[in-house]
Amino acid sequence: xxxxxxxxxxxxxxxxxxxxxxxxxxxxxxxxxxxxxxxxxxxxxxxxxxxxxxxxxxxxxxxxxxxxxxxxxxxxxxxxxxxxxxxxxxxxxxxxxxxxxxxxxxxxxxxxxxxxxxxxxxxxxxxxxxxxxxxxxxxxxxxxxxxxxxxxxxxxxxxxxxxxxxxxxxxxxxxxxxxxxxxxxxxxxxxxxxxxxxxxxxxxxxxxxxxxxxxxxxxxxxxxxxxxxxxxxxxxxxxxxxxxxxxxxxxxxxxxxxxxxxxxxxxxxxxxxxxxxxxxxxxxxxxxxxxxxxxxxxxxxxxxxxxxxxxxxxxxxxxxxxxxxxxxxxxxxxxxxxxx
Length: 340
Hints:
Blueprint: H1 2-7, H2 11-22, H3 29-41, H4 43-58, H5 62-73, E1 83-84, E2 95-99, H6 111-135, E3 138-139, E4 146-149, E5 155-158, E6 163-168, E7 173-185, E8 194-197, E9 202-205, E10 209-215, E11 218-225, E12 227-232, E13 235-240, E14 243-248, E15 251-252, E16 256-257, E17 270-277, H7 278-285, E18 292-295, H8 298-301, E19 304-310, H9 316-325, E20 329-332, E21 336-339
Parallel strand pairs: 7-8, 18-21
Antiparallel strand pairs: 1-2, 2-19, 3-6, 4-5, 5-7, 6-7, 7-10, 8-9, 9-12, 10-11, 11-14, 12-13, 14-15, 14-16, 17-19, 20-21
């Protein structure tokens, strides 16, 4: 683990990883010694670590600040209906309409619980991602896309915040999708099937074009050309052009016909959400940002949103959501935005 910290290309990532590690109960004396060596070896190391530590200290204050602002701002209930346009490439490509907006009076958790939630959002989320990046052959940062042609002629396009490894041998061409989403244009070779493994399920193809998205243990496979066999445990199914299938909750779902190409919208710089809760929308938007947007009120997180946004300008969505939902925002260091 220590070597991973020291070999990371980003000083900020090293600082975050060291800080998270030093909070653990099983930190050894040797690790603390290595940390001191790293900290003192360059002024940038000390600056990055101190900045990370100060960020965590600042998180002791936000809950009380948010509480005070909610009390001050909520003199009345939100309007029953509202609509706003989410900025995109032009007015015909982007739009956002909220539905099922009901009036609520909100209570927030105690300050300690709120602070703990924010701490977990940063710490638990960051370290596993950095570990996956170190294990991968190719990975992208939030908001970044990357394409590469492999030795067999197949072409991969990685969407935002994606990590994968490539393992080819004489019998098969195997991709381990560690997280995120990628589009695969597979060079035909019947003797060497092309397999994308997502942990508990995999997609097998010979010559085709398809996308695979992994979120935790869940997998979604959408086919653009040819056909793909998706296997999970003892189950398997064939997914054809304009179809998709999901592996979720430990089982393979029914194959669905899709009437549009929303599954591939990210390849043209768009993300589509249709009648989804705000918490789902934020989870998607956060894939395109280096920080996080968090809806801290349960009722707000459940509000229903439909629309399209430009994935290359994810921060612009915050202002649109703020207007649409009649909400307030609080920006904190590290790209953390609270929506309430």
